[in-house]
Amino acid sequence: MKNYLKSLALISAFIMLSGGLFLYSGLYPMGADTPHNQLTYWLLETLRERSIARAASDLEIPNDLNSSDRLLAGGADYNDMCTGCHLKPGKTQSDFSIGLYPVPPNLTLTVDRHDPEHADSTGSDNETIKRQFWIIKHGIKASGMPAWGSGHDDERIWNMVAFIQQLPTLSPEQYQILSARRNNNGGHH
Amino acid sequence: MKTKTLTFTIALSTLVFTLSAQAHDPKEHMKDAKAPECAAMKDMDHSKMGMDDPVMQAIMKQCMKDMHGDDTGEEESHEDHEKESDTHNSEHQH
After folding, report:
1. What is the pLDDT of residues A54-108, one digit of tens each?
2. So where are chain A's domains?
């Protein structure tokens, strides 16, 4: 038993020392043009998804999420704040969508097309909606996704979520009309 | 004492100014805003859009002014548009 504990302690010390040496060696490629290896990707992905799912689980979705007023208010904000990375109908790529890592999801596609792994794991639409609200409000560390909640109230963020739900169904012409900013659709609801 | 009050006042006003500047005001975008191109509605496939569809309702709201050429259009009801839509559809059928 004593030998067993001694071996366990030695192995643990070796793993920690090796990990520390690797950390300080600078050998891990940090450039956004080199994808993570599968283990790092899985660890980060799992950490992110579990954290968001837990934090978003208590959110309450507004009953009027499908209202046209929310669509109009959210469309204008989406056009101003999101298209650079998440694209719009008729646009398939941008400098940000090509260069960022992880690649920002193309929100003109349905969830099962722009993020098939995630679509499989979440199951319900409500979870997706809550997840989208939480991500827009709080952002995601080290991903390029900012926390919009610092300058936007919850209603404005729900408006954007409402618009994102309809985005995959819109043609470029419909998108232009809905995202144009008139004096009466400036972010209020 | 006066210096303390002055420092506090300056610090407070700086804080208020900074916080207000952080908020993303839609008016910031008004000068770059493009008007909705409602003429494109003519080429849309209206048969796929119901009046209960929130996208259709939002497009109608956005284009109301352009369709009627004045500000009174917003007062018009959905029933009126349904009639217009029916007329439009029946014209297509003939």
Report:
1. 999 999 999 999 999 999 999 999 999 999 999 999 999 999 999 999 999 999 9
2. 38-185
Q: What is the ipTM score, two decimals?
A: 0.76
| Percent of chain A with pLDDT strictly greater than 70 | 90
pTM, two decimals, is 0.75
Count the domains in chain B: 1
Which of B24, B40, B57 minimises the CB distance to A173? Answer: B40
What residue numbers bound the domain in which B44 lies? Answer: 2-93
CA distance A147 to A150: 6
Distance from CA of A171 to the nearest CA of B (A): 9
In chain A, what residues touch B67 (CB-CB under 8 Å)?
none
Contact (CB, 8 A) for B41 and B49:
no
Q: d(Cα A36, Cα B29) in Å, to the nearest integer?
A: 37
Give the closest of A71, A151, A171 to B54, CB-based.
Answer: A71
pLDDT tens for each residue of A126-178: 999 999 999 999 999 999 999 999 999 999 999 999 999 999 999 999 999 99
Residues contacting A101, CB < 8 A, separation 6+: A32, A33, A35
Cβ-contact B58, A189 below 8 angstroms: no
Chain A positions touching B60 (Cβ under 8 A) are 68
Rounded-to-integer distance, Cα A14 and Cα A7, Å:
10
| Residue among A72, A81, A181 whose CB faces B58 most closely | A72
pLDDT tens profile A70-83: 999 999 999 999 99
